[in-house]
Specification:
Oligomer: single chain
Number of helices: 17
Largest sheet: 2 strands, antiparallel
Shape: globular
Strand content: under 5%
Order of helices and strands: EEHHHHHHEHEHHEHHHHEHHHH
CATH topology: ABC transporter involved in vitamin B12 uptake, BtuC
Distance between the termini: 21 Å
CATH class: Mainly Alpha
Structural class: mainly alpha
Strand order of the largest sheet: 1-2
């Protein structure tokens, strides 16, 4: 749950300390106070987007210095599409991590969804729309199966989903055959998920404007509620500063995308998923139950929360998002093959998804994080992959770097919790 003045706040995910709005404070004093707040958060081991953004900027500067094509509109546009498959899987991981659990099967489930779609559409002649629905439903059913074993039978989620990793990867290979590769229609629905762009410049700028306006409206509404309740809140100057920074980033991204082929459909879908997921977690009763369960199982149970139902629902979300991510992976490859199924099931997609969630700020210990953390985390992971690809670095080095970044993020998470425990003790 969000923390305001040291107490949980019902509006959802974690936020940094919120300063009270003093009377007569000017813009400069407000911004100085906010800067001190950020410095204090970093100094005390707190985690937030500031360090991730700083790391992402360093990564981009280094790769741009090594290859001037890294920040080209073409490469950045491709990067914005490449993050979607892993990003969608990572969104599902966030929901499971929030309740202090883990889903090790998402890579295999994504491969199973892609294979299911390909078999139904190519071999069985089923229409693409219906095959997509069935593939996503398969992911949801798999998630419900895992959640039921965990919540009702008491089998640890680690064991259940580890078994699922093997079972669903084996089923995928069985469906595709020992050496069968199924090529999907390059002009069809699924292929268009990663190949279609909105070429009209207005589309990208409209999304940038809508996102900026939406953030400002939500922030102002939250300020009004806090003011009416007499609770501490950030200075208005900080809200306007954040809005201005978001506008700069959003419109710069829109301008860059328009210099190539325009707004990618995949990126638009990903942003919509992030907005909807964040709203569900922060603004609905179900989302508050998720954060409460992540804060403590027994406390949530005593508060009247149906722990088993929430657990099953979270694994269903994870399976559904894994299936959706698998369709985007299949879209980028325009095929489903045993080779890609083995790669997904072997764990690389799983590791990247977990790394994206944790690097972005979602805690492995539950109760802290948001879907928006995935955006920054997956940008870090995919930027490393893109930069390494441009430089021709072998996969082994990329794996080591990704593992090192993940280890650093987990260590930062542990240090953050230790610092918070020390502060509570004092």
């Amino acid at each position: 749950m969000a923390v305001i003045g040291g107490r949980p706040h019902r509006d959802g995910g974690p936020a940094g300390p919120v300063t009270a709005q003093p009377q007569g404070r000017g813009w400069q004093d407000s911004l100085r106070a906010y800067a001190r707040e950020i410095r204090g958060t970093v100094r005390d081991g707190g985690r937030g987007p500031v360090l991730v953004v700083a790391g992402l900027i360093v990564i981009w500067i280094v790769f741009q210095a090594l290859d001037d094509k890294f920040l080209s509109p073409r490469n950045l546009s491709n990067l914005s599409v490449d993050i979607v498959g892993t990003g969608l899987v990572a969104v599902g991981i966030v929901f499971v991590l929030l309740i202090r659990e883990i889903d090790l099967s998402v890579g295999s489930v994504s491969g199973l969804a892609g294979a299911t779609f390909a078999v139904l559409n190519v071999n069985q002649g089923m229409t693409e729309w219906l095959a997509v629905i069935v593939a996503v439903a398969v992911g949801m059913a798999v998630g419900a199966f895992h959640g039921a074993f965990f919540a009702w039978l008491g089998v640890p989620a680690f064991v259940v989903t580890l078994a699922g990793l093997l079972v669903w990867n084996g089923l995928t290979l069985y469906l595709l055959g020992a050496s069968g590769t199924l090529n999907i229609d390059e002009d069809g629905l699924v292929a268009s998920l990663t190949s279609r762009h909105f070429g009209d410049d207005l589309a990208a700028y409209a999304v940038a404007a809508l996102g900026t306006a939406g953030y400002l409206l939500a922030a102002r509404r939250r300020q009004s509620r806090l003011r009416a309740a007499g609770m501490p809140r950030r200075p208005d100057a900080v809200i306007w500063l954040r809005t201005a920074l978001l506008a700069v980033v959003a419109f710069a991204a829109a301008c860059t995308l328009n210099r190539f082929q325009g707004l990618p459909l995949a990126l638009l879908i990903f942003l919509v998923v992030l907005v909807v997921s964040d709203y569900v977690l922060r603004r609905t009763r179900h989302g508050r139950r998720v954060y409460a369960l992540g804060g403590g199982v027994e406390a949530a149970r005593r508060a009247g929360i149906g722990v088993e139902r929430v657990r099953i629902a979270m694994f269903m979300v994870s399976g559904t998002m894994a299936a959706a991510g698998g369709l985007f992976v299949a879209s980028g490859l325009t095929s489903a093959s045993p080779t890609t199924a083995r790669a997904a099931g072997s764990g690389m997609l799983l590791i990247n998804a977990i790394a994206a969630a944790v690097i972005g700020g979602t805690s492995l210990f539950g109760g802290r994080g948001s879907p928006w953390s995935v955006l920054l985390g997956v940008l870090v992971i995919q930027s490393i992959a893109s930069g390494m690809g441009l430089l021709g670095v072998e996969d082994a080095v990329q794996f080591m770097i990704t593992g090192g970044v993940l280890l650093a993020a987990v260590a930062a998470d542990a240090l953050s919790r230790r610092a918070a425990a020390r502060q509570e003790g004092t």
